[in-house]
Amino acid sequence: MSFRTIVVVFLSLMTVIMCGVVPLIGIDPVTGEGLALLSIADVISGLTQEPTQASRFFLLRLPRVFAGALVGASLAAAGSALQAILRNPLAEPYTLGISSGASLAALATIRWGIDHIWGINSVGIAAMLGAMTTMGLITYLATYKRSLSGNSLILAGITISLFCGAATLLIQYTASFSEIYRFVHWMMGGLDVTGYQAITQSLVPIMIGLGLLFYFARPINTLSAGTTATAMLGFSPAKTRFWVFFAVSLIVGSSIAIAGPIGFVGLVIPHWLRGIVGPDQRKLLPVCIIFGAGFVVFCDTLARLIFMPAEIPVGIITALLGGPFFLVLLARLPNKIWSN
Hints:
Blueprint: H1 3-21, E1 25-27, E2 35-37, H2 40-46, H3 51-86, H4 98-111, E3 116-117, E4 120-121, H5 122-143, H6 150-173, H7 177-187, H8 197-215, H9 217-223, H10 227-232, H11 237-259, H12 265-277, H13 281-305, H14 314-332, H15 334-338
Antiparallel strand pairs: 1-2, 3-4
Helix pairs in contact: 1-13, 2-3, 3-8, 3-9, 3-11, 3-12, 3-13, 4-5, 4-6, 4-11, 5-6, 5-11, 8-11, 12-13, 13-14
């Protein structure tokens, strides 16, 4: 077993342990200040006796950890696949504008009062449709009278992102003050979920999307070497791109339905891990899922505890950590990013 494998296994175990411990950490419910650690014995006994501790653990903290892990794993896997298939280090759902399109569709659904239809949370459906529409439009703009390239997709994504941002401002301008507060808070990206309804509604499309990425892992590897190599090995570049884009749309739309737009997870995690486990998606994807989950859970824990008893949205923490990483990437790889 190589040293890198030992490091990955050790860090993975630490990530799993952290996700198990985080639900026990929170603000003291008695004083409202300071940290308090829930006792596992109190949680277990609360199932049959005093339900307060058990309710706080199973209905508030555990769903939040599940949501953060699911969102982080999804965004990291999506970013890994996009960077490989487009051969561009800046490719991820946030920079490609997919998150902006999904957010616009979700906000429009909330603004028009159709976020719950027939007992179904239509925000998730709208976010998925918005992500798919945005991905299709970006692909069309990138391929219109030119070959599909990572640079073209990035530029097209920036264009779509600016348009969706302007449309989002228009929706906010026409909304009431209470709706504006809800929109702004949602756009920051947060994991203030209660119960498991939002998680269960998004779990199936996310699992389908991740399953597609694993199924096309080998074609993604060949496509990262170019369309010629992909065709020589018997894979269809167009088919691979279509299913990867479809999977990413499912993943991003469902993740945004849970937590709103959370940026830079799909940029930071794949780049960090690619230097450890290599570019092979069959190895990189599962590791990105583990560490992406741990990264968002860790950031959300910081968001809960830094200014306690107040909480800040986790999207602010990921942006503060991911923004400098993005600038360092631009500074280190300027020629590679803008070359053909």
